[in-house]
Amino acid sequence: SLVTIGDPRGSEYLHQALQVLDPVANPLETANALSVEARFHHLAGRHKKAIELLLRAGELVAPTAESDSVSTFAAPMIAQVYSYMAGAYQHYGLYTEADRWARRALEFGRRHKILFAQATGFEFLGEDCVLTGNYEAGLEYAEREIEIANKLHSRERLAWVHWYGGQCRLLLGQVERAEQEFIDGIALAEAIGENRVLRLQRSTLAVAQAMRGRHDEALETASTNLEHSSGSLLYSHFEALRSFAQVRFIRNELEEAERLCQQADELVAPTDSRVSQLCLGPLYIEVLLAAQKRDEAAAKLTEYQALVADCQSPRFTAEAARLAKVFTDQR
User: Fold this and answer.
1) pLDDT tens digits for 82-97?
2) Rounded mean pLDDT, 247-269
3) CB neighbour list of residue 170: distance below 8 Å, 6 or more residues apart
4) DSSP codes of every residue in 32-73
């Protein structure tokens, strides 16, 4: 319960549980505790530590997952390990690995007829498409997950579909349809009290509003979203800052855009959140270029090129090449 809101008090419960649990006698329970502990690290941006714990959890659940039948007790634990692993690799910028674990969740769900595992598999595949640039495929995954979410009667699953489906539409230039996706997703998130996806949806909604020329409305959405954003949920708080910076940049308010980019950068710099750095880099560099701060932009670009070389994202690799060409053309 505490991990869903990023409350670190939950870690103490896990430490107490892990002192009692025996990985040989209680492999599933131990894996469950390890995966939830990993999730706390994930939400705080410590993705390498999360991956380390999840790999241990994955070893513990493997014999049960590969058996002919899986109990209703074991199924959600195994699905959780696989989906958390996909998320940890996603935020660490390794999308080939993230997709591998998402497909593992999907295949596990199909083999044992576990709809939740199938849904989370499609969700992470769809989210990865946003970050790798395969937007049309992301929309196909969204359609598949909607079918499963409707069978599950899961408003939470649908809220997350609206978020990554809306992003795919936004990046394809379908801004009006993207805005409606975010509005629908916000309504669902509010109804079930899922604040993490709510804040992410409001962030992307502000950008869509700005892109449609409703700059004052976008400013209000982004500003209010940041005010209500919780620092305990690192990625949501980062996205509130980054989207606010993007709105300011669209409004040509360069000083404010740069200040927000700097805040977002400082927030994630001490962490392993490479997904945040991948998303922020192009915006920050363009803001600096627009502000005639070429040397600072060049330094940021050098850092960004090193980052994308160590990640697995065709989208952001192309962004780095595009920005390098901008510098070349301006000489």
Assistant:
1) 999 999 999 999 999 9
2) 98
3) 178, 204, 207, 208, 211
4) HHHHHHHHHHHHTT-HHHHHHHHHHHHHHHHHHHTSS---TT
Cβ proximity of 51 and 78 under 8 Å: no
The tokens of 300 are what?
A: 């940021």
Which of 150, 226, 140, 158 shows the shortest CA–CA distance to 197? Answer: 158
**pTM of the predicted model as reported, rounded to 2 decimal places:** 0.95
330, two tokens: 């301006």
**pLDDT averaged over the chain?**
95
Contacts of 89 (CB under 8 A, 6+ apart): 47, 51, 95, 97, 98, 101
Amino acid present at 31:
A
Q: How far, in Å, are 68, 75, 208, 264 from residue 79 at the CA level? A: 16, 6, 33, 32
Largest distance between two CA atoms of the chain: 66
Residue 30 reports pLDDT greater than 70:
yes
Output DSSP code: residue 4: G
Mention every residue, 6+ apart, whose C-beta is less than 8 A from residue 176.
Answer: 212
Helix extents (H) in the chain: 10-20, 27-43, 47-65, 74-91, 95-111, 115-132, 135-152, 155-171, 175-192, 195-211, 215-227, 234-250, 254-268, 274-290, 294-309, 314-330
CA dihedral (188, 190, 191, 195) in degrees, to 10, reads 90
Residue 5 confidence (pLDDT): 67
CB of 114 closer than 8 Å to CB of 83? no
If you write DSSP's letter for every residue of 203-235 in order, what string do you get? HHHHHHHHHTT-HHHHHHHHHHHHHT--TTSHH
The residues near 223 (Cβ < 8 Å, ≥ 6 apart) are 244
Q: Report the 10 Å Cβ neighbour count for 164.
A: 30
Least confident interval from 46-50, 66-70, 267-271: 66-70
